[in-house]
Amino acid sequence: MLRPFEIHQPASAAEASRLRGALGEEAAFYAGGTELLLVMKEGLLRYAHLIDLKTIGGLDGIGVDATTGTLCLGALATHAAIERSPVVAERFPLLAEVERSVANVRVKNVGTLGGNLCFAEPHADPGPLFLACEATVRLEGAAGARDLPIGQFFVDAYQTARAPEEVLTQIRVPRFGPHTRGVYLRFGWHERPALGVALALTLDPRHTQVADLRVAVGGVTPRPTRLRGVEDRARGRGLDEVLASLETVAGAAAGDVRPASDLYGSAEYKGAMVKVFVRRAFLGAAARFNGSGG
Ligand SMILES: Cc1cc2nc3c(=O)[nH]c(=O)nc-3n(C[C@H](O)[C@H](O)[C@H](O)COP(=O)(O)OP(=O)(O)OC[C@H]3O[C@@H](n4cnc5c(N)ncnc54)[C@H](O)[C@@H]3O)c2cc1C
Predict the structure, then answer these.
(1) What pLDDT score was predicted for residue 143?
(2) What is the atom index within ligand 1 of the atom nearest the CA of 37?
(3) Model confidence over 212-251: pLDDT tens digits?
(4) Could you tell me the CA-to-CA distances from 114 to 35, 76, 136, 179, 220 in Å, in that order?
(5) Ligand 1, closest atom to CA 103?
(6) To which H or E segment does residue 248 belong?
(7) Ligand 1 pocket test, candidate residues 35, 160, 185, 197, most atoms within 8 A of CB
(8) pLDDT means per 10 residues in the chain (294 residues)?
(9) Which residue, 33, 196, 30, is CA-closest to 102?
(10) Which residue spans traverse the membrane (predicted)?
């Protein structure tokens, strides 16, 4: 049962931050409420005050930085809004593709991207995708704003580098260059993914060499993790050579992640699945050089 609480409706991120500072641990920020109200109903967390971020104008905007081409996603943008956004469809179709498989209609219509990232539930899709894209997050407090690489934002399961009084206001995703293709593959049987692998493959202009590779996995470790060993085994090598030794390249994931057993599977099973999905994601990204962009 939900206990009574007081709702506060700030007009700016700075005001929200000041409110959180004044009310302390009795207060939490509130966006779509799809996670927060659930844990409050179950009595796992109790707050006497909820600070509603939806009353802050402009936090749900989706646009492009005209100078850099960076996609700027307001933290209050819902999954449904991102999925349907013409800007996302044009600038980063992979994100729209990922959002299509997130949760269900009810959660998509109210759940926000910022809420997803701040809750830091390990079985989530946007985290690994943004990690492979080297996105940054903007955090705003009463004293000002700071930008953080997403890799530094995720600290542990349900834990981020956000200070309690900081509001996540924006997620900034750099544009893929003309020789980069991305893929996100998720696997699972519950609503949330058991595993998600995001991969961004950059080839040289002749499309014969792997100029860069970024791979991230979610769901198998407490926080989304870059697979640096896999990346290092592929970077700088011929594409055909990597494709021919993909089993070995993907096998390097064993040194990158130590999966933890949970309700979604044993550590051993997850380790095997990571390898399978890294291989599939690489093949998928390579195939996109002959077809649609990502
Ligand atoms: C049935 C179900 C299925 C789901 N399936 C998937 C799935 O397939 N893939 C997936 O990735 N996710 C999935 N999710 C998670 C879903 O994406 C999140 O529930 C949603 O995005 C959270 O956003 P919210 O706005 O509702 O957050 P809220 O519940 O409002 O907030 C969540 C937490 O973040 C904090 N917070 C929220 N916004 C901010 C902000 N801007 N700044 C600072 N702190 C903030 C709150 O204080 C709270 O602690 C699922 C959830 C449910 C309930």
Answers:
(1) 85
(2) 29
(3) 999 999 999 999 999 999 999 999 999 999 999 999 999 9
(4) 12, 6, 12, 29, 21
(5) 5
(6) helix 246-251
(7) 35
(8) 93 97 97 97 96 97 96 98 98 96 95 98 97 98 94 98 98 97 93 94 98 97 97 98 97 92 89 97 96 55
(9) 196
(10) none
Where does residue 265 fall: left (phi above 0), alpha (psi -120 to 50 degrees), or beta otherwise? left
Q: What pLDDT is recorded for position 35?
A: 97
Q: How far apart are CA 70 and CA 172, in angstroms?
A: 6
* Strands 49-52 and 27-30, bridge-based pairing: parallel
Kindly state the percentage of the chain with pLDDT values over 90: 93
Which residue in this structure is represented by tokens 């910022």?
114
At residue 83, the 3 state secondary structure works out as helix
Task: Domains for the chain: give ranges and CATH numbers.
Answer: 6-52 (3.30.43.10), 62-173 (3.30.465.10), 183-287 (3.30.390.50)
Handedness of CA 115, 61, 93, 160 (dihedral sign): negative
| pLDDT above 70 coverage of the chain, percent | 99
Give 199 Cα–ligand 1 centroid separation in angstroms.
Answer: 23
